[in-house]
Amino acid sequence: MNNPTLGAERAKLVTKRAAQWLLESGIQQPCGAVARYYRCDTQKMQPVSTEITAYAAATLVYLHRLTGDVRCLEAGLRAGRYLTRVAWNPALATIPFEGPPQELAYFFDAGIIARGLLALWRATGEGEFFETATGCARSMAEDFRGPSGYHAILALPGKQPAPGDGRWSRGPGCYQLKAAMAWLDLGDVSLYEGALAGFLDTHPAFLEAAPDRESLMDRLHAYCYFLEGLLPRAAHPGCALALRQGIGRVGGLVRDIGPAFERCDVWAQLLRLRLMAAALGVGGLDAAAAEQEAAVVAGFQYDSADPRLDGGFCFGRKASERMPFANPASTAFSVQALAMWEQYQQGAFHPDTLDLI
Prior knowledge:
This protein has a single domain (8-355), classed as Glycosyltransferase (Alpha/alpha barrel). Helices cover 56% and strands 7% of the residues.
């Protein structure tokens, strides 16, 4: 817990190297699509993912703003155009889950894709990004609506609810609030507020469903999505309370479970939440905890002669050994968390939930 501060120069280097990894590692294909991760033990890129492509698009827009490197915006545009021109299925009016075969659609992915496209639209004004984001949000509201919330997965082409299998990502839950932010970003307050009300009542049970400690670490990642989804309503007493309690709970559990299994994205999400909640008036900032979290996150960045690794962030560790995955989502959350921490230290942090990747 006595880690030194990241430092302005190191923070800039972390950002520059992460941008270079996204641009030059091959994680993004020439068509704009982004692989789910690079597996360094087999030296293979995994299949492309529409969700990860959307995260990358939003990250590249953010990195362009931080660095001024026009290549970031160009790569972000390629990612966005892949989503609008290749992944979007006009006949089904939705974006199917990774394919072919295109047999499923996910509520969560649709929301993340919509938010990534909106980041590009705000940066460029290009209408196709807004139009496809609107289509994704409409599909979420109409196709996924269930009797008491929103289905997690639909089977295509009939758009019938697909059964879960016990994994959090295959069933509905409070984590879906992060995706519901797309409605708010598009100005549909009522849909977001409706989802928020339901998840505020049910979220305490989400972590309790984990069957073991490793599964609990995975659920911490998803639970952070719920907490992120609360941020636009941080001034609401019920949301503020859930944020304070949730940040405390995640912070305690990630430190408790971490020696056996830790995920980079959980650490990064926790740091972002801590900084944004404090800046939005949800209690004071535990600066010592934030400092430790920043140091831990920075330690996940690869330093390698292999350009497929160098500058990317590792997914996680088991028993202090790195897992063999250079992960775009982990990179996205980490570089933003560390940039936010540096801005906070410089007195220049201004929270905006539209920017949250």
